[in-house]
Amino acid sequence: MAYEKIYIGKGTQVPNLQIAKVTLKLEEIEKIAYEMDGVKYVTFEVARLREPDKFGRAFTCYYSKKVDQSQEPAPQKSRKRKAKAPQAEPSLM
To answer: Tens of pLDDT along 10-58?
Structure first.
């Protein structure tokens, strides 16, 4: 089993605190909500970006989805074929 990351939002760091403030679309959150013992939950990850984007957002939010690799086609390895050297034509003389 492998996991696929589905990105749902971005955020910024709160000045002078170790807190990330994120903004998410409610429609996206409702899609991933699940219920357990009559209580609704949402699970997602918040990760720091290597570099802030052009709007200064330094965090990204995503959830992980299990992907069954047996259902996916295996990636094809690209093979580079060597070009054959041109063959000399037999001379008739």
So the answer is: 999 999 999 999 999 999 899 999 999 999 999 999 999 999 999 999 9
Beta bridge partners of 4: 65
Containing 46, the helix (H) or strand (E) segment is: strand 45-48
Query: Is pLDDT of 6 > 80?
Result: yes
Phi-psi region of 37 (alpha: psi -120 to 50; beta: other; left: phi over 0): left
Q: How far apart are the first and last CA of the chain?
A: 67
In the chain, domain spans: 2-66
State the pairing for strand pair 20-24/34-36: unpaired
Under 8 Å between Cβ of 59 and 48: yes
Angstrom distance (rounded) from CA 45 to CA 8: 10
Report the predicted TM-score, pTM, of the whole model to 2 decimal places. 0.64
